[in-house]
Write a structure and sequence with these properties.
This protein is α/β, with parallel strands linked by helices. Helix content is 41%, strand content 20%.
């Protein structure tokens, strides 16, 4: 790992806790109806996430071009290059490491699904991106989502599939891997213990309550995760800014979920 990569990664993991809290505002193709939900007003959603003080935000390149200048220097910027739907209706890489450099980003994220007939194509997304990023010392973060094609390509979070997703991440050479939490402490701890790069958890699957999302984050941290990058469980639960503050208190201050909720006023 070169100096540039180390410097950029240090911006992502800049908090004294050694952990990372990211906000994901990068989901546009998978949600269909853009007039409803937490991302219906994308500029407003980004503003509310940023008011909660994340360490970084991941966002699609076009949205970053239009919206990020107001937040430059207030958090690290991660450009999301992966663009897919779980049924493979859409599957495109929409940004390169050079694009991330031009946007002033600190990392390039590549979201991919695994399993199914197109898995090799997605793995190639990661390996090609890692090779191209080396020229620019640009860290690559893999967001890896296993699918169950016996259930229509549904994203799954079972221990075996999450362990497989983590292995795909680090064997393709990425610097950080983001996966869903299994809900099973022992299995997730074992997976983290055998992974040579930082693991952060995805905020999904969406929980019924914010308390549930905070609890799975706390459990993942106890198992060795280095933080969380949260989307639906951030802007999908009422007051986004208060939810972000609660996540920060769990991730960076080690508060119990109930205490974090109370302290954040959520």
């Amino acid at each position: 790992m070169g100096l540039g990569t180390k410097i950029r990664l240090s911006r992502l993991f800049s908090n004294a806790s050694g952990n990372l809290f990211g906000g994901a505002v990068d989901h546009f193709v998978g949600y269909g109806n853009v007039r409803e939900g937490g991302l219906a007003d994308l500029p407003g959603a980004l503003s509310r996430v940023m008011a909660g003080g994340p360490d970084y935000v991941s966002i699609q390149p076009g949205a970053a071009r239009h919206l990020w200048s107001d937040y430059a220097g207030k958090a690290a910027l991660v450009i999301q290059a992966g663009c897919f739907t779980a049924d493979d209706r859409i599957r495109q890489l929409i940004a390169t490491p050079e694009d991330a450099v031009r946007y002033g980003a600190d990392a390039l994220a590549v979201a991919i699904p695994v399993r199914g007939n197109t898995e090799g194509e997605y793995i190639r997304w990661l390996t090609d991106t890692v090779n191209a990023a080396a020229r620019f010392e640009m860290p690559v973060i893999a967001h890896v989502y296993p699918r169950d094609f016996a259930n229509g390509g549904k994203i799954v979070f079972t221990p075996d599939e999450i362990a497989y997703a983590v292995r795909i991440g680090y064997e393709t050479g990425v610097d950080v891997v983001k996966v869903g939490y299994t809900g099973d402490f022992a299995s997730f701890r074992d997976t983290v213990a055998t992974c040579p790069i930082p693991i952060v958890i995805a905020g999904g699957p969406k929980t019924d309550t914010l308390l549930g999302a905070l609890q799975q984050t706390a459990d993942a941290l106890r198992a060795g995760a280095r933080g969380a990058v949260v989307g639906r469980n951030l802007w999908g639960h009422g007051d986004t800014t208060k939810a972000a503050r609660a996540f920060k208190l769990v991730i960076h201050d080690g508060l119990a979920p109930e205490e974090a909720l109370a302290a954040a006023g959520a």
